[in-house]
């Protein structure tokens, strides 16, 4: 495993019809104090509102033009809510290029040094998403989970 800022984190942000938060949430995830070439942002959109989808895509495009490695994923069949969207996104081939995954619910905006604090101070932090969701009954609790996807 790499150490320090050479680690490659993937940040996932889930949302559903988040017209009131999409800009600040995407911004907060994109401005992490981490080398841009070493991180990927996945915007995982389950919105059924086409206006929100279009606005979110446009925001993703703006950050792409600023040099952020960011992708927009929208599911056509919304089953299993945000946790299922996350599971679907984790099956993408490019996910294997990233050592850590930080998941954020759209209503939560991480502070700019979140990745530094989470990754540099904790070599391996594992969190079983299904356990959290089952035990606490809310997908909002996975906003700050950091998962080591290599181990």
UniProtKB/TrEMBL annotation:
It comes from the Eukaryota. This is Uncharacterized protein. The lineage of its organism: Eukaryota, Viridiplantae, Streptophyta, Embryophyta, Tracheophyta.
């Amino acid at each position: 495993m790499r150490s320090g800022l050479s680690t490659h984190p993937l940040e996932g942000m889930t949302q559903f019809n988040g017209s009131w938060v999409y800009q600040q949430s995407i911004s907060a995830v994109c401005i992490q104090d981490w080398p841009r070439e070493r991180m990927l942002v996945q915007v995982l959109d389950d919105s059924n509102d086409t206006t929100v989808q279009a606005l979110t895509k446009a925001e993703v495009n703006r950050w792409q033009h600023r040099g952020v490695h960011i992708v927009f994923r929208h599911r056509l069949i919304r089953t299993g809510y945000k946790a299922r969207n996350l599971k679907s996104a984790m099956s993408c081939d490019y996910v294997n290029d990233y050592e850590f995954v930080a998941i954020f619910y759209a209503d939560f905006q991480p502070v700019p040094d979140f990745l530094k604090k989470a990754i540099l101070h904790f070599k391996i932090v594992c969190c079983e998403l299904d356990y959290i969701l089952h035990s606490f009954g809310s997908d909002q609790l996975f906003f700050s989970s950091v998962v080591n996807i290599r181990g």
